[in-house]
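Good day; I would like, with your permission, to put a structural problem before you. What I wish to show you is a protein chain and, alongside it, a tokenised description of its three-dimensional fold. Please examine both parts with care and let me know of anything in them that strikes you as inconsistent. Thank you for your consideration; the sequence and its tokens are set out here:

***
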Amino acid sequence: MGVARQLKTKWCKWAALVGGVSMVVGGLATIATTPLISISLSVSGAMLVCIENMLQKSRVEYRRLKDLETIIATTGLILTTTDPNGLVTGFNRTAEETLGYEAGDVIGKLTVRDLLKTDPEEGAVSSHAYAQLSDEPEQQEREFRRKDGSTFPALVTVRPIYGEDGKVAEYFGVGIDVSARKAGQEALREKQELIESIALTSPTIFYIFDLSCRRIVYSNRELPTMLGYTEEQVATMGSDPLPAVMHPEDLDILFNRYESCANLRDGEILESEFRCLSAFGELRWLSARDVVFKRDAEGNVTQILVNVVDTTDRRVLHEQIETQVLEIQDTNLALEIQTNALEEANAQLESLAFTDGLTGIANHRSFQEELAKSFDSAKRRKRRLSLMLVDVDQFKQYNDTYGHPSGDIVLKRVASVIRDSCPEGCLPARYGGEEFAVLCPGFSGNEVLMLAESIRNAIETTPWPERSVTVSIGAVSLSQDLATPSDLVSASDNALYSSKASGRNCVTFYDFEQRRRLAS
């Protein structure tokens, strides 16, 4: 088919489109009930003018026809075409976005029946539904079914497109989603029903009060009925029954309220609370909220809308709440004290778990955990790490001679001297029995030797109650020969054994280089 024939065929289709779109927009113009729909119709009308102008130029210029096709693809209207058997042959972008299908999933695969909701009362939707709709002179409202199964209402106009043989070649459908309009109408109806329901079932009383003639012109219920008065009793109270039931001491509140209402601004709320006497002789608290309802031609307030609520129970509840709040505050204070005590107890327990109960320095468990962390860090970062083991000389003999209580005093003082001698960053710990350990991150061999000698000398020169006390010390620094924390402890223990073998009260450093030379 030549370009001229293609243009002619497309011209027929777009001409039918313009007719269909015009009818939908024209029909919607008569039912528009909100500014939003009116704006949408104005935009659609402007788009139609644009389409018609482009159609005129498309008779002679194919490129402008392509521009028109782009506009049609992106218009806010649902545009579809089908063959005479109802099979979809055209599906614009709005149809894709609204129905949730990709055009490729619809064209040549689905029929109109697949896109329209089946109405059980009308029977199954025929695949020739567009052919049926094309016989209708006006647009029809139909329920479309999205790909996800949900439905929405749309106004649809269908027009046949005739071929060169005069027979229907395609059907062109134009639709517009009217779910927003219908939702707005439904919301308005529900709002009206809600207002009516509130007026009839509200536990509060609201009424319109005329300030000029001092009377109630409308009320959802008689005001005194809130206080238990009968209709017969209310009838004797006149057009403004409030003064008849108010506590005499609060009548000034009522009259001052009327004067203040005359000066209210639109939207401003005047609140007041006063006491009334119920039909059973009880004092009840009522709260009134007044707003401007009507003004005269000069702008003076003539009527107010009043909302009255019985606040007696609320006042009682408020007092109860205040009492409960005070009780809760007292309880919270007690809980806070208990929590602090519990946290302190937990801290003590945690300290006991990592502290030696006799000497007050780190226990064996704490030492092992810190040794593992320091060893791993030193290995990974290639940092220095030294360790010394300190053993009290002839401690068993001391215990046997002077007793265990005296031995405990010695262990405490030795731990105290070690702790006081260690610089910040070192960890003194009781390793077990009369043996202590000092972990020294960052210390070189010479530095740990100097610290060990300082500790040995300090213990030797400390005054002791029974006899002099000395210690033997074995020290070691991390080297490539040590693969695990246990290796470090073993090397230090070997050095300690050497100190014991050398006559005690001395320091021995485990020198790997010297031992390698001796071994060779």
